[in-house]
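Box 3.1. Reading complex inputs
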Amino acid sequence: MPSEIQYGQFVRESTLKQRSVSYNDLIPKLEVDGQGQPIPYHPPKLKLQSADIYNLLAPYLNVRLIEQVKAVFPLAIYLVLFQILILRQPVQEAVLITGGLGAVILGLMVFMEGLKLGLMPFGEVIGTNLPKKSPLPVVLLIAFLLGIGVTFAEPAIGALQAVGSIVNVEKAPFLRTLLGEWAGTLVLVVGMGVGLAAVLGTARFLYNWSLKPMIYMALIPTIGLTVYCMGNPDLAKILGLAWDCGAVTTGPVTVPLVLALGIGIAASGGKGESSLSGFGIVTLASLFPIIAVLCLAVYVSTVTTPEAIIAAAKASTAIASVPLWHELTPWAEIKGGAQAIIPLVIFLFLVLKLVLREKVQEAGILTYGLVLCVTGMMIFNVGLSYGLAKLGEQSGSMVPAAFNAIPAVAGSPLYTYALGIFIAGMFAWLLGFGATLAEPALNALGQTVETLTNGSFKKNTLMYAVSIGVGFGLTLGVMKIIFEWPIAYMVIIGYTVGIVLTALSSEEFVNVAWDSAGVTTGPITVPLVLAMGLGFGNAVEAVEGFGILSMASICPIVSVLITGLWVQRGSKNKSAA
Amino acid sequence: MAQRDITVLKDVALITCVVQRGAAEPIIRAAREAGAQGATVNYGKGMGIRERLGILGVAVEVEKEVIQILVSSEQVDRVFERMYLAGKLDTPGMGIAYITRLDKAATYIPPEVLAKVSAG
């Protein structure tokens, strides 16, 4: 017996309960065929016990479910509590809305997983291989077509059509017809705007163009067209919609897919992945669609007159035809979901097969991903109509009861006029602030920015700057609807301030600031805010309820640019001292 | 030129643990609580288990995190066990861990620690 032992040895011996198995016993014997050639070994499928299947699936589902619950739940709770506590109104159709929100959560979860497994691999393969095999014009053409395809696949774009039916045809005929008969064309031109942004953004990757002149170049025609439309009282009403379209486009499908393509092209062009190469496309993709929609509106105004539209709308309501089965919910939503994704998939598949002649890898997983994409989109669309749009519209139409007499709300106005307006403003501010702070894309952007600026621009600083910007944006948007301020003046003033600040700021902050406008408008915020704006507009009997989203785009740009200038000044002072 | 001394560490073992992307953090925490000083994480891609799981394979992330932890040969089994449990490596698809005995390692050793060890 040794009189002393090492403590470490004691610990080791007392904790171990290991059982050893030789790996040699586990590996299969390779078989040999008649000629003595080894037969390639294919391991058999594993047979799992149900406990193992549970252990495997539980974390997989949990993580993805919680992600979406986190995005939807706080917003819904906020709206419901506001309605009950401040407005003292019960939530109507609560069961239906809860079901709808459940569908939104489930749909987004399934869709995002499908996006990752099904669509993104396509984007990556095409992004890395296309520039090697095709000349630049073909690459840019495909980038353009991809821009159109992803716009149709964007979940938030469905919200535009969903809210179109609320618009009053007599007050804003062009707006109604753009969202009605011309809805398909509208999405198409928005897609063309995104496509153009993808082309220019890719060119920017390749030639290292600065973003500043591109912003100026894009804004001049945008503001020019806005001023032109402002002069025509009928066209002026579509300005809100046009500026909102810019915000709708930069969602969870467009951004990663277009970026994957752009970065692949830049990498094969030998420019590598500069730290800023990810930025810029999002900015352009939120400016060009505005131009495109304005052009479409001007075109529509030349081919038809407001009187004709009103007459046509009256005629169609007079007939009040029984809708076909595929125009009824939930079939219409399901059809919409399929229509949104399948063309994009076919396009990507054709590019892969015909242009690249590349084989599809892991076809099983890919198919599974695409099926998830389509299913998720369908479920999300149903949830959009029954959950988000309904809840948003309800809150929007109830909030004015704080300062105005609303027939639906007994005892309204609930508060004095000034207090009521203040409450409505606070409501919008908190909604914007909270929804933005919870947006996962913003967190990711903040992280990138902190790394990029070597920590001088903190992640939290950016997140608060953007959230406060969106808060003020929503407040301004709501005020616009209440007091019927013309949207044109607001965007012109907002973007002029933006341009002045852009000229003063350094390139990196410009990139960050203009892109931060794009990340704030995710698939939950957009339908909710759009529906809320329209409900709000109807309740205060405004002509149209668009424009809130565009305010939510410009305000964070301004707030981030100001913060950027402030951070810059701070670091200069430090280096001087 | 003054002679420079290099102190090398002996009795060092390397634990390498490959898990799904995003799963490294609790494992590293468990390892540090069991006495490991630090960890290095690399990113990588894995293949094999997904194909064998069939349709359930979609629940296993292809992107992996490769955790490398240097421990003393006395700690190694304890840390290894903790990592195995923290990573739930007994579930299919969760990952694999292995130990490599190392010859030597060299790094910064605080002078007072060095003095204490050499004295004893």
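In summary: Chain B touches chain A at residues 22, 50-60, 72, 74-75, 77-78, 81, 88, 91-93 (CB under 8 Å).
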